[in-house]
Specification:
Number of strands: 2
Order of helices and strands: HEHHHHHHHEHHHHHHHHH
GO molecular function: transmembrane transporter activity
Pfam family, one: MFS_1
Low-confidence stretches: 1-11
Protein name: MFS transporter
Keywords: Membrane, Transmembrane, Transmembrane helix
Organism: Paraburkholderia sprentiae WSM5005
CATH architecture of the largest domain: Up-down Bundle
CATH class of the largest domain: Mainly Alpha
Number of domains: 2
Amino acid sequence: MTGSSIYLSTGERAISHAEHLPASLQLRAFIPFLIASLVIAASYGTSFLLPEYLQSLGMKSDVAGAVISSGMVSTMICCCVAGRIAQRIGVMPTIALASLVMAGSMLCFAAAPMDIRAVYAGGLLLGAGWSVFFILAPLQIIHHLCPNARIQYLTFVSGTQMAGLGMAAPLSRLIAQHAGSIALAYLLFAAACAVAAVCVKIAGDAMRDRSCLPMTRVAITATDTSALLRARTAVPIAMLSLAACVFAGLATYQTPYAVSRNLRPDLFFLTFTITSVALRLSLARTMGRIKPARLALALLLLTGASLVLFLLNHGSTTLYIVATALFATGYGLSYSTLNGMAVNLAGDHGVSVPVTSQIFTLAYFIGLFGCPFLCGALIHVFGADAMLVVLLVLLCQ
């Protein structure tokens, strides 16, 4: 089965130029898609409770580390093969399958009290399900919208996902308080992931009669990757990878930084989540009206300014909150902006748009997973300030 037959056989009308695509998605298609994004992100967010959950089962902390590491490995592998699967069975069916894989992961975690080996399978499935959903979800948006509307809708999706990630831990703890076990929370999230798969199916059916771009080259290949890295599309991809490095370093080692200043690290995570979610959902329409290059530069400057404030802060809670809010604005709005910028440039330069979007996400994961090792070494040898200086230098490259 070829990539073109996947999309044209479902009743979608292929459009040769992206500018001729509609500027909006029908609510009957977009709302179920957002619900699925919220649920899958929240399910992934339950991984933050794994150390606490496994300790309650008598396991050592290194078990949680091994489970999370296995999830990272499956994330990187599945990012590379997701496009090949989508090219054979379609983007939306692959996203629905990823939702069911996430359901399997939640079931494995829920089964840990009966057999602790299940958590290792859960970690692998978690990385596989989340990475496939995360890397392919933007394709469905890009596939159906004109370039000027993409940033707006990608921002709505990323805001919904951030809300899901933020609500996962408190919701799971609330369920555990009433049920006496986090295992029940994992069971409920498994059921929610199955519902998410149904939502994806509903969204896919609603988009069948909509105009779209043909996506005959969805699989990541060496030829397409080389072409996009030689083109201007490499610029927003590199910017995103560096931004992910900054976020990973700042988030992973926020506790050592906060302790060195007698601050509370939970203020960082609370302020970051609330600010980024609120801005993504409230400013999505406005962001779609601004030229992507100007918007990306402004967000980059805000992120840099926040790092300077973190570096200069010697113990002020107010300055800590302000710096975090600036960082949440700069970094929090950059993902969808740079994503839209990358795929629009790809379309202008004849580079595969689906492959560009996937390489963009892959670069994000590389920055996210790779940077904490460097930052950890810097903090161990030179302290938290050295980490901030290096992150600022990376951002200015």
